[in-house]
Amino acid sequence: MRIDRLAARELGEFWSLREDVTVLFGQSTVLRTPWGELHLERPGPLLCEALRRMQLGPVSLANVVPGFPGYDVPEGEWNEASRELLDALAPLQHVIVRHLAIGASPLLSVVPLSPRASFRPPPVAPGGELRVPKGAVLRRPGSDPVLSYEGCDHRIELHGPDAPRLLLHLQGGKVDFRSPLDVPLPQTVVRAARAYAVAAGMLSAVDLKGAARL
């Protein structure tokens, strides 16, 4: 077993801007996006700091606002600073990439693909059987799996050595371990990944005959 497999396998949530988004700061902050420019008139200091960090790569917004809530924290439990920042970020969902990590290792990224993209993970993923629609898995030779299908507003990128195992969880398959030393994915991570996949439109209900419905 590698040493990094012994590190704490805890869920981490991170935010970043799409790689093709540029932020120009000023009295009127401008975001240059694939779909045109977004002008933010007199953005608050929390939003400016979040954007400054997010343009550099995935960041925990708890480093901007102490106590920043995870996806599964009810709105009634958000602090005022978190509410202010989340309200400011809401109109920018189509340029924000959401990430999950396990320990220090990236695991899943949800990338918006259209100006219509909206991403709100449910606090608890819907019950019942959920599956990735057939034909939604695109494998690139030598690369990590990518989940996407035509017309979807997001794609999901899976990363690292845990990607195949997480893909099986999302596909509803049986996850086996090769040896007793293999460490299973924590249930908190699996639940978060399913909630993210639901929000991205990449999980659908399964009817009684086992055929996925979009």
Outline the structure in words.
By secondary structure, the protein is of the alpha+beta class. The protein has one domain. Helices cover 20% and strands 23% of the residues. It contains 4 helices and 11 strands; from the N terminus they run E-E-E-E-H-H-E-E-E-E-E-E-H-H-E. Strands 1-5-6-10-9-8 form a 6-stranded antiparallel sheet. The protein has a 3-stranded antiparallel sheet with strand order 2-3-4, covered by helices on one side. It is globular. The model is unreliable at 1-6 and 207-214 (pLDDT under 50).
Architecture blueprint of SSEs:
Layout: E1 11-17, E2 22-24, E3 28-33, E4 36-41, H1 45-54, H2 80-89, E5 96-102, E6 105-112, E7 130-131, E8 137-138, E9 146-147, E10 154-158, H3 163-171, H4 187-199, E11 204-205
Antiparallel strand pairs: 1-5, 2-3, 3-4, 5-6, 6-10, 7-11, 8-9, 9-10
Terminal Cα span: 40 Å
Helix content: 10-25%
- Could you describe the largest sheet, including whether it forms a barrel? 6 strands, antiparallel
Tell me the number of strands. 11
The count of helical stretches stands at 4
Structural class: alpha+beta
Dominant shape? globular
Strand arrangement across the biggest beta sheet: 1-5-6-10-9-8
Strand content: 15-25%
**Global Rg:** 18 Å
Number of domains: 1
Low-confidence parts lasting 5 or more residues at pLDDT below 50?
1-6, 207-214
Outline:
The protein is α+β, with helices and mostly antiparallel strands. Helices cover about 20% and strands about 25% of the residues. It has helices at about 45-55, 80-90, 165-170, 185-200, and strands spanning about 10-15, 20-25, 30-35, 35-40, 95-100, 105-110, 130, 135-140, 145, 155-160, 205.
